[in-house]
C-alpha cells in the first residue's frame, strides 16, 4: 500500500478515510489512478478532484458511499455506473436491520478493496460476474440463520464470506478453538481470491505441470482430504513443506494459503517502502533493510531479502506493545520455493496462462 495525501492541504490520509482531518475535504478512492483523492463540490451532485493525476476531473460517489456509508469509492462523472469497481463485485449484502451488520459490511468492503488494490498493483485483472457470467468474480456476504451455518469459501468465481468473520470477538474465538496462529478478515479475502486465480492462471495452462510438482495433484478427492484433515489433523512435520497446517490438507488449499502469504508479503513490503522504513543497525549481527525497490519492479529475491528483516522488526515491535506477533510463521525452503512459483506466475501475467497443449 502506497502512502496518500490530501490534494487540498497535503495532509497524510489513509486508504479507509472519507474526510481529511486537517481541512475537512471529502476524500474518495479513484480507481484509474489508484489514489485517495480530495474533492470539492462541483455542479449538481458532482465532485471535482484536487489531486494530481486526476486534478479538475469530475466524479460522483459510489452509491454505497453516498447512501450506505460503507465505501469510499468514486466513479467518473461520465459513467452510467452507480457502484464503484469494488462494490460492483458484491451481489449479496447483510440485512441492515440486524444490529452491527452495517459495521460488518463496511469492514468486509474495506478488506475487499485492499485486496483489489494489491491485485491492481500486480497487474491481475478482475471483472464482475454480471459483466462476464463465465469467468467473472462475485461476492456474497451472508450470515448464519438459526442452525443454518454459512461456510466461507470459493466456487468457480463465487466467493461467500460469513459476516461473522468481521466480528473481532467471534473471529478470535474461532482462531483459538481451531489452534490457528493467525486469522484475519483480510487474510480470508486473500485466501479465497487465491482459489479464484488458481482457476484463472493455473488450471488447464502451462503452469499446471510445475504446479503439481510443487503442490501435488489437485485431482485428489477434496472431500476425503477435508474429512481426513479434521478427523486426524495435519500430518506430522507439516511445517517443513507447508506455510500452515491447513495448507497441508489439499493442493488447492496449499496454493490458496501460499497465495495469501505472497499477498501478505507484497503488501507489507510495499507499505514499508512507501513509508521509507529502513533498518540500519549499529552492528553487522542485526538484520538490515535498505532496499526500497517498488514491489511491482522487485525480483523475488528482493522481496525475500526484505521480508525476513521486516517480520523480525514487526514481531519485535508487537511484543513491545504486548500484542501477538504480526507474522507468526517460519518459512521453510520448500515453502519459499512455492512462494517463488507464485511470484513467477504473477510476474508472467494472465497473458502467459495459455492452455496446456
Per-chain topology:
Layout (H helix, E strand, L loop, with lengths): L3 E2 L6 E2 L12 E5 L4 E7 L5 E3 L8 E4 L1 H4 L6 E4 L13 E3 L8 H21 L16 E5 L10 E3 L2 E5 L5 H10 L7 H18 L5 H8 L6 H11 L18 H24 L25 H22 L11 H16 L9
Parallel strand pairs: 3-7, 8-9, 9-11
Antiparallel strand pairs: 1-2, 3-4, 4-5, 5-6, 6-7, 10-11
Key attributes of the depicted protein:
globular; five-stranded mixed barrel; 9 helices; about 350 residues; four-stranded mixed beta sheet; alpha/beta; about 40% helix
Overall pLDDT metric: 94
Helix content: 25-40%
Provide the low-confidence segments as ranges: none
Principal-axis shape equals globular
| Rg measurement, Å | 21 Å
Strand order of the largest sheet: 3-4-5-6-7
Proportion of beta-strand residues = 5-15%
Total helical segments: 9
Short description:
This protein is α/β, with parallel strands linked by helices and 357 residues long.
